[in-house]
Amino acid sequence: MPVALHKLLLFTFGIVYLADGNSALLSVRKDPRCGWKPHETKPWSYFNLLTRIVGGNQVEQGSHPWQVSLKRRQRHFCGGTIVSAQWVVTAAHCVVDRYILDYLNVTAGEYDLSLEEAEEQTLPVESIIKHPNFNPGRPMNYDIALVKLKGSFRFGPSVAPACLPDPDEKFDPGYICTTCGWGRLRENGNLPQVLHEVNLPILNYKECSKILLTLRKPIQGDTLMCAGFPDGGKDACQGDSGGPLLCRRKHGAWTLAGVTSWGMGCARGWINNLRKNYDQRGSPGVFTDLRKVLSWIHGKINADLKMKSSTASCSSQDGKLHGNEGSLHFPESPKHFYENNQLCVWTLLVPKGMHVLLNFSHFDVEPDTFCDYDSLLVYSKDDRLVGKFCGDDPPSPILVGYNSVRLKFVSDNKEYGAGFSMTYKAVSPDALPDSGCGSLAVLFKAGVIQSMHYPEPYSNLAQCHWIIHAPEDHVILLTYQSFETEENEDCSYDSVTVYEDSAKEEEIAKSCGFAVPPPVLSFSNVMLIIFKSDETETFGGFRATISFIHMAGKGSNEYKWQPAFPQGQHRRFSRES
Ligand code: 4AZ
Most CB atoms closer than 10 Å: which of 10, 150, 311, 484? Predict the structure, then answer.
């Protein structure tokens, strides 16, 4: 697929969207007060190493003013780190429960969980942003989330933010950093009342990935970092998750280098892992490497600052847009952010008989696999849904084979984005039959489709998509007129694939090679056709006609399907004589 590896092309209910975890790097205003403990003015020294979670020690009150306790009602369950008066960084796995906002409280200035300290402040939560690439299966990539508080913490001697790393700031392997929390004091051991900390050296990435491989958790270009001693003895443990791994930068400020994520047991050594039963093996502490998610954090916190100045809102009323071309920006400026609980509708109307081409230049709508939270929905003829979009990347252009398109934008009561900008223009209905190659073509009429440049050789790395909608009570017949594509046993190089539905769930036929494939018939009035080519060898491609066949009610025996093609690659259609 001609997109970077971290981008995922998804089709969902007639949807094409690209999900991309990285937002633009914007700088959150730097807080010069970050990273300082109340009585600490000296720069980092080896003396700090003598202080000795599991194998650590109880801290002095106020010595980690950035540490918070995430509480389910009154009970501590995870740690977190203050990075600004309104924002706390924690682990995504701590906040996966969709109903967590109903009970989550965040306490800062906490030291002894059984007492109420003088500076202790507990706030409810306004919203939680989990990293969209978070994968809960170990090795648990992108285990990071931002918690926005309802209200702000008042900073003082026992409540203060940690620094975020600078974009070019690196803590090298061997550097001794500190993790802290109210987690167990040994594996399956007791939970302490007071905050503990332990110093751990950062491991190099190769070493980290080798150790995790002994646990059958391969990592590759991931967001993980490891810290610990090969013989074990010191570690974070259950209940420390979400809390910080802090490294002291050159000039002394404590900087959030990682977020506590997981480990195999607690404080177990790992040097003889391969000689041990799987259950007995150990691992270093595994943390989410802040450097890898820094741009996402800055993007989200900045987005929030910008949103405060946003005036964008809309009702469900239809904003009608007429003419041969135009543009639509929602909200009005890409510097603003849409609000929660929006329902907006626009109808784009081009002159009768013309088709509409939509081109998105900017797109930022809360990502979700099924776009279930916020989304832009595109409807056309007979109010048929032709696409549902969300994510961080603009959808590819969409050519709608009708003269009107209705756009509906919905947002839920959580998270938000910068919306979208698009242009639309009227295009002639004799749009080229290869229109599916420069855009997603959504067609409502019978006609012809073909690969790009047909009958000249098609391009390498082609991705052409046509979604065909027939009127109700009709099925769609795809009849190839000519066919010339790279031959391969399982058609994994170049191919034309026909799907039953626009979600790509049911494949009806996949063809490649030089023989004209048999016609393909849809089950319903929708058909998705995808032509793709790999990076080598190109041929003349294909040309096919699309026709609609009326199904004369249920039980009709006007048409019959033959059984599936022996290799399961083609379903033939024949007319009973
Ligand atoms: C946890 O479940 C957890 N030994 C955190 C860290 C480690 C293990 C478990 C690392 O919160």
Answer: 484
In degrees rounded to 5, what are phi and psi of residue 198?
Answer: -150, 145
Q: Assess whether 434 carries a catalytic annotation.
A: no
CA torsion through residues 187, 193, 197, 198, sign = negative
Query: Is the distance from CB of 394 to CB of 360 less than 8 angstroms?
Result: yes
Q: Which of 183, 126, 195, 125 is nearest to 158 (CA)?
A: 195
Contact 457, 539 (CB under 8 A): yes
CA of 187 to the centre of ligand 1 (A): 9
Q: Output the pLDDT for position 558.
A: 39
Question: What torsion do the CA atoms of 88, 94, 97, 102 make, to the nearest 10 degrees?
Answer: -40
166 labelled catalytic: no
pLDDT at 143 over 50: yes
**Residue 263 near ligand 1, beta carbon < 6 Å:** yes
| Burial bucket for residue 210 (CB in 10 Å: 0-12, 13-18, 19+) | middle
Is residue 520 within 8 A of residue 550, CB to CB? The reply is no
Of the candidates 188, 156, 178, the residue with the CA atom closest to the CA atom of residue 59:
178
530-555 burial string, b = 16+ CB within 10 Å, else e?
A: bbbbeeeebbbbbbbbbebbebeeee
CA 67 to centroid of ligand 1, rounded, Å: 17
* 17: confidence class by pLDDT, cuts 50, 70, 90: very low
- Residue 145 DSSP one-character state: E
- Sorted by sequence, the CB contacts under 8 Å of residue 556 that are 6+ apart come out as none
Q: Which residue's CA is the nearest one to ligand 1's atom 11?
A: 238
CB 60 within 8 A of CB 158: no
pLDDT digits (tens, 9 = 90+) for 217-260: 988 878 999 999 999 999 999 999 999 999 998 778 999 999 99
What is the arrangement of strands in the sheet containing 176-181, beginning at the earlier edge strand?
57-58, 196-201, 176-181, 244-248, 254-262, 285-289, 224-227
d(CA 113, CA 95): 20
Distance CA 69, CA 76 (A): 6
pLDDT tens digits, one per residue of 326-340: 888 888 777 677 887
Out of 184, 240, 245, mutate this one to test ligand 1's pocket (max ligand atoms within 8 Å of CB): namely: 240
Q: Please say whether the dihedral angle defined by the alpha carbons of residues 365, 369, 371 and 376, taken in this order, is positive or negative.
A: positive
Going by their DSSP bridges, the two strands 75-84 and 67-72 should be labelled as antiparallel
Residues 291-304: tens digit of each pLDDT: 999 989 988 887 77
What's the pLDDT score for residue 364?
A: 92
Which ligand 1 atom minimizes the distance to the CA of 54? 4
Q: Which domains does the chain have, with CATH numbers?
A: 11-299 (2.40.10.10), 318-427 (2.60.120.290), 433-576 (2.60.120.290)
Ligand 1 centroid, distance to 203 Cα (angstroms): 17
